[in-house]
Specification:
Strand order of the largest sheet: 2-1-3
Distance between the termini: 31 Å
Radius of gyration: 19 Å
Helix content: 55-70%
Structural class: alpha+beta
Strand content: 5-15%
Order of helices and strands: HEEHEH
Number of strands: 3
Length: 95
């Protein structure tokens, strides 16, 4: 169950990004204007797919969510490695 939650979260991380025009500072810049006639989500995805803008960044309003997703992903990775190590130890103990 936890591995599936991580998988879904990992696949959903592309929703965090947006195309932007940097202004030369580390985190400064303007997001690319939305495409008229499309919903904000569809417009954001189209901007990314079409390569509009000069860069890609995580939407500022979703930075906390991105950090939590990263933490969750790494925690599940650690658990899966521990599980694999336990399985290998059991297999070696049987031989």
């Amino acid at each position: 169950m936890l591995l599936q939650a991580s998988h879904v979260g990992y696949r959903g991380r592309d929703d965090l990004y947006e195309a932007f025009h940097p202004d030369g500072t580390r985190e400064g810049g303007e997001p690319v204007a939305p495409i008229r006639g499309l919903s904000p989500k569809t417009s954001r995805r189209a901007n990314l797919a079409l390569g509009r803008g000069n860069g890609i960044l995580i939407q500022p309003s979703r930075m906390e969510e991105a950090g939590q997703m990263h933490t969750d992903y790494l925690a599940v990775w650690d658990r899966s490695r521990a599980y694999a190590a336990a399985v290998l130890a059991l297999l070696r103990a049987r031989t």
